[in-house]
Structures are given as C-alpha cells and as structure tokens.
C-alpha cells in the first residue's frame, strides 16, 4: 500500500517520515525514530507497556495508527527528562525502588504522568485505578504506587 | 509481535464522503473511531478490510449536549473518558458516566468512543485470539466456517456482546442516528441489535453512526453493575443495569454479556408493577430472570457462577435503590 508522508511531533522535535497506513505509532517510534523506551508487550492493548503521552494523555501506541497522529504532541519516556534532569516521577521510581525487570517502567511512568496531569493529588485508589492499564509481571505494584504518591505529595 | 494487515487509509472531512466511500467499498471497508476494537481485530485477522476510513477529521461527530426536550445527544466520536468525566453526562445520566468509567483501563477510555463501544464486536474464547492461535483449527461460524469451538456441536454462533456503555444505552431506551449514503435515519436501540452473534448490529455497508440520543431524564434510579475478574481492563463476565422510574411504576433490568445483544424481559417486569415493591417481589423477579438467561461457557467464569451472580446483582440493585423490606 502507498506510503504516506506524516509529520510527527515527538518530544518537542518534528519528524517528517513516510509510513504505510498500517504502521502503528509504536512501530514508528521504535523502528523509524529509535525511541525504544516505549515497549512492545502484548501488542493488543492489554498490558500498557507501549503507553506514550498524546496531548498529555496516556495512549496505547500499539493500537494507534501513525497516520492519525499528525498535529498531536507525542511524549515518550525519553522526552520526560528536562535539561539532563530526570522528571520527578523518574527520580521517585529510583528512590522508591519501584523498578524490577524494568519492562513495564516506561509505560508506568507515562501513565502516572498522565494521571498527575489530570489529577495532581490522587488518592491511593485513584493511583491504582490510573495505573490499572499497565501490567507489571514482577508484581512490584506497591512500590510503584508509593513512588507516584510521593511525587503527588511533594507537589502539595 | 502482531503486524497489521495491509490496507488503504482515508480520512475524509465530510460525513457524506465517508458514506460514499463505504458504499463504493461495499463491505470491504472498516470505519475507525478510537480503534481499540478494530485494530485488535485486524491484528488478530478476524477483520481484514481493504480500506480503513478514519473519522477523526469530522467535527460534527464530537458534539455533546443536553436539553429537557431532546434529551442527551452524544455524537459518535465522544470518547469514553469524556462520557465518564463530563458534567453534562454526570449531572443527567450518572449511570452512563459510571459505565464509561468501567470500560477497559484509562488508556482505552481516552481512545475509545461511544460509537465504537456501541458497535463492539461479539466475542468468544476462540474468536478473540490471534490468527496463530487459531491456525490449527478450521474456521468457526463467525469466521465463515461451520463449527463452534466453545459450545460443542452448536449449529450457530454464540459469541457474546459485552459493551458496558452499549447495554446501559439500551436500558435507557436510546435511539441511534445513522447516516447512510442516501439518507439519515433514527433507529431505536432495540432495532439496532439483531440478536445474531455474527452480524450483531443493524448497520448497512454504507452506514455510520452519527449520534446517540438518550431520552430526557425522569426522576428515578439507575445503576450499572459489572462482574469481572479484576477491577479494570476486562470485558464483563456479566453486566446488570437497573433503570427505575418509581413514579411510573416502571423498572427495567438489562442483562449484558450473556447473548448477542443486551437482554431485557419486559413481560417479567410486570411482576414488579405492584402497589408496593417488596424484597419478596424482587426476589421472585430475579429468580425468573435467572431462569431465562442462558450464560454459556464462552467467556471467563463458570456458567453457574454467572447465573447466581445475575440474581444477586439484581437484588443488590433494588436494595441500593431503597427496597429494604
């Protein structure tokens, strides 16, 4: 099928690329642009490992077509740190030891970022609900929730 | 890794172009709203359209308004997240916001739309699998074959409709505005569902959902109960909606995820039309409903468990409504 020219805004930079209509945002981010922080897990929208921020909302990039992403502001895990300083969520994950194998971590942090964008002071239950679409098979949820709550608390 | 099949893609900026493209494709095109259902189906090769038509450039599909005369008008691209959080919906039909907040996880609610949820395809354990998983078996009824892998010897498809918002819209007596290449029409939600698991909704090849209209609110009580394995993500093992208008002595119960469409038993609802609604009447009603529904072993949870839970959730709904003696 004919490739299309698409301009994607990823982590503040613009990329003009040619993609097939069937290319998912995840494939383009990982394979064309080299943002391999977003992970390919189930590839069917169940695990949340591929989550990226699209206009500030956690979005499953494995279920999103790249051709539909023109004009959207996409942020991947690589785009969270500013001026070589980690995002508070990234720092909190390190401080709380909220990482085991690390595969779910980018998606977890992106979904946590999305949650705090919309609800800066969530309760523990709201954090758990906000991260329910991100699966951690090391089952290290307690420390992940603790890290997100620590960031929310530090903002108050 | 699940690569999508090849397809052409168009994103028209007018709904009439969408309908004429659909008419030209005559069944070989798919309409894409949020994509949370369609993209998965395409990855699983249960749907392989030649053309995908994106709807996101149609500004008229994003409206959401309420009036006492017309009711709640929700355009088809309104996301589940908007439904769950918008004051217009929460103030007038909190049950709809509640159901939307129970679909999938946050990410699905950001992408998923009300039109897409309404059209959610029917599924079963066999059908909802990857092409690789199904490869060693011949196609089932829904995939054009003549076998059923979940109900041994079944001569027809028993895939289950499980849209949470779809079943609540059904209980609220909504109507669906459908746009086709030749005309626009409104159909009642009862007519919208066919009851056939293979082609479960009444949409012709050239038609697309434009909006959903929920009749104006009346004083009453409405709740949606979703039975599922975890607190998020999963499709329902069972859904129970109660919409009650005590002033009119009208009580609707809609059961979801046990058939090809949401089920309502209007003849049984007459049991509840007594001067005083008591627990014993509700119990009789729940028993009758449970005897009518036929959950099958094609989604998670045993048949007995799901039947029992149907009765319990009906009673719970009426208790929460205030029937205590």
Tell me the layout of helices and strands.
The complex is a heterodimer of chains A (156) and B (325).
Chain A lengths: L3 E7 L2 E7 L5 H8 L18 E4 L2 E4 L12 E3 L12 H9 L8 H14 L5 H7 L10 H15 L1
Parallel strand pairs in A: 1-5
Antiparallel strand pairs in A: 1-2, 3-4, 3-5
Helix pairs in contact in A: 2-5
Chain B lengths: L7 E3 L4 H11 L3 E4 L5 H7 L6 E4 L9 E4 L3 E5 L4 H6 L1 H6 L1 H8 L4 H6 L2 H6 L11 H4 L29 H8 L3 E5 L4 E5 H4 L15 E7 L6 E7 L10 E8 L4 E7 L6 E2 L1 H4 L9 H14 L10 H19 L4
Parallel strand pairs in B: 1-3, 2-3
Antiparallel strand pairs in B: 4-5, 5-8, 6-7, 6-8, 9-10, 10-11, 11-12
Helix pairs in contact in B: 5-9, 12-13
User: Which structural category do the helix and sheet elements of chain B fall into?
Assistant: alpha+beta
Strand content of chain B: 15-25%
**Greatest interface and its participating residue counts:** A-B, 34 and 32 residues
Q: How many domains, in number, for the residues of chain A?
A: 2
pLDDT < 50 runs, ≥5 residues of chain B: none
User: What quaternary form is this?
Assistant: heterodimer
Secondary-structure element sequence of chain B? EHEHEEEHHHHHHHEEHEEEEEHHH
Radius of gyration of chain B, taken over Cα atoms and rounded to an integer in Å: 20 Å
Count of helices of chain B? 13
Just give the CATH class of the largest domain in chain A: Alpha Beta
Q: What would you say the CATH architecture of the largest domain in chain A is?
A: Roll
Number of helices of chain A: 5
The mean pLDDT of chain B is 95
Give the CA-CA distance, first to last residue of chain B: 56 Å
Straight-line N-to-C gap of chain A: 52 Å
